[in-house]
Specification:
Blueprint (H helix, E strand, L loop, with lengths): L11 E6 L4 H17 L3 E8 H7 L8 E6 L13 H10 L2 H10 L6 E5 L4 H9 L3 E4 L4 H8 L2 H5 L22 H6 L6 E5 L8 H14 L2 E5 L4 H8 L3 E4 L4 H5 L4 E6 L3 H10 L3 E3 L6 H11 L3 E3 L12 H11 L5 H20 L5 H13 L3
Parallel strand pairs: 1-2, 1-4, 2-3, 4-5, 6-7, 6-9, 7-8, 9-10, 10-11
Helix pairs in contact: 9-10, 9-14, 12-15
Pfam family, one: UDPGT
Keywords: Transferase
Organism: Sesamum radiatum
Length: 372
């Protein structure tokens, strides 16, 4: 699938290629929507695999953003967590060639490529074709700094071990009745649970999560792709389990009073924007750093493993007690955490207004790319 010819008024043609994962596709799409809303003469070709088109093809987007697909050269999204190494290697070795063939098919000349930082081959493509490449980093700036300065650990002899060799490293919109369900709940009474779409916790841990949530007596909305029917049976009538939801809209709903998150950066930003306290359960990479920010620095959440001994496995008794206490709106600790979350919400909202840091940076970037 490739987009139709460009409008004669198009001032700039952007090709956006996200890393194939919900936590990367969402921020790339949000960036593209912001760019096109700021400049009506911008055309965006948004490149995804055919499988991902099936997941997001019917989601709302402006007409100036058009999907284009490459073949399914990667392990399926529905099974990639089983062999993450093979998936990561495929993103580095199998996407470049079909992406470049797609560029040859586009009618409008490409002014700039915006690529996820983890798709480093996009820079090689841009260099070969003399097309500027902008890199979208989907994690906290602090983690970017860690990556950028990582070589200093080896340069200064700080590694206590030898480095390993370098390695390459179904649309669910039918579930939208969950909004009617949320509308029926009291303010701040629902715990929203989403533990990421890329890496899942074990089946045993999912069962403990379900039992803990059910026993807590707290109303919850849980997003669990591929397992929603089974988990709904385990959870009973105390909450609702769906395969997909519009996360930002859910977090901003008046009935939602908490967010149990894996600490993906996009999810964290959305939680901050909504002003909801969080329970953190990081899995890998930047998520542990982000959890530290939420719990220790910003003080707007709890560590989900707080008080857990003997490894990372969370028992249902721990979960039910934690969730019950976390959602106790009358506790002093909860009130203070909510107050800080609301303060951070104001800061986050101000950043996207005229004169705010995010708005000014976006305008500056847009000005730069329309000069090419």
């Amino acid at each position: 699938m490739s987009p139709a010819g460009s409008d004669p008024l198009t001032a700039c043609h952007v090709v956006a290629v996200p890393y194939p994962g919900r936590g990367h596709i969402n921020p790339m799409m949000n960036l593209c929507k912001l760019l096109t809303s700021s400049n009506p003469h911008l055309l965006v070709t948004f490149v995804i695999t055919e499988e991902w088109l099936g997941f997001i093809g019917s989601e709302e987007k402006p007409p100036s953003i058009r999907f284009a697909t490459i073949p399914n050269v990667l392990p399926s999204e529905l099974a990639r967590a089983v062999d993450m190494t093979s998936f990561v290697e495929a993103t580095q070795t199998k996407m470049e060639e079909p992406f470049e063939r797609l560029l040859d098919r586009l009618d409008a000349p490409v002014n700039i490529i915006i690529a996820d930082t983890f798709l480093n081959w996009a820079v090689d493509v841009g260099n070969r074709r003399n097309i500027p490449v902008a890199s979208l980093w989907p994690m906290p700036a602090s983690v970017f700094s860690i990556f950028y300065h990582f070589h200093l650990l080896a340069d200064n002899g700080h590694f206590p071990f030898e480095l390993s060799a370098k390695s390459h490293s179904t649309n669910q919109n039918d579930d939208r009745h969950y909004f009617e369900w949320l509308n029926s709940k009291p303010p701040s009474s629902v715990l929203y649970v989403s533990l990421g779409s890329f890496l899942s916790v074990s089946s045993a841990q999912m069962d403990e999560n379900a039992k803990g949530l059910r026993d807590s007596g707290v109303t919850f909305l849980w997003v669990a792709r591929g397992e929603s029917t089974k988990l709904q049976e385990k959870c009973g009538d105390g909450g609702k389990v769906v395969a997909w939801c519009d996360q930002l809209k859910v977090l901003c709903h008046s009935s939602v009073g908490g967010f149990w998150t894996h600490c993906g950066w996009s999810s964290t930003l959305e939680g901050m924007y909504a002003g909801v306290p969080m329970i953190t359960l990081p899995i890998l990479a930047d998520q542990t750093t982000t959890s530290k920010f939420i719990v220790e620095d910003w003080k707007i959440g709890w560590d989900g493993k707080r008080g857990v001994k003997g490894g990372d496995f969370l028992r249902s008794a721990h979960i039910s007690e934690m969730v019950r206490r976390f959602m106790d709106l009358e506790s002093i600790e909860r009130k203070e955490m909510t107050r800080r979350a609301r303060e951070l919400q104001v800061v986050a909202g101000g950043a996207i207004l005229d004169g705010g840091s995010s708005k000014m940076n976006l305008d500056s970037f847009l000005d730069d790319i329309t000069r090419f």
